[in-house]
Amino acid sequence: MGIYLVQSAQAEALVSPFVNKEAMRQHMSQISQATPVGRHAVVIIDGAGWHTYDTAAEFNNLTLIKLPPYSPELNPIEQVWSWIRQHCLSNRVFSGYEEIVGEVSKAWDHFISIPDRVTKMCSREWIVKISNDKARSAYIPFTQGEMSYFNNR
């Protein structure tokens, strides 16, 4: 799991052997702690079963925004994982779990080593717009009006 904090150009990731609601809570805790005091993080989530609003309920500096179904093109982290697979992890055979974790960690570090690349891949005009509108509210899914904003882009 990974996130990019656009305003501070900071990247955070959690490498885990599994994904579930507890891993998501740990990631939300990591994001909450990385968010500067006085700031608010808007976390874009998709429809994965562990992407639920209650995983961020205890953090007052986070808002989750759930993407519409079947819209990976709206989720910047999908482009990040695609880049990592294409440039660092494709056509490889790993000897076991430890090597996978090590290589995924190195791939993440390689990706974030060029901040301009990260900013370009992770910044979206609609995220800034929605973030500014929603940061003061908690756990609000997209409205029909916001969906028309995407459809008219």
TrEMBL record:
UniProt cross-references to InterPro entries, sorted A to Z: RNaseH_sf, Tc1-like_DDE_dom
Protein species of origin: Pseudoalteromonas holothuriae
Protein name as it appears in the record: Tc1-like transposase DDE domain-containing protein
Domain of life of the organism encoding this protein: Bacteria
GO molecular function annotations of the record: nucleic acid binding
Tc1-like transposase DDE domain ranges (all copies): 10-99
Gene3D superfamilies, per database record: Ribonuclease H-like superfamily/Ribonuclease H (3.30.420.10)
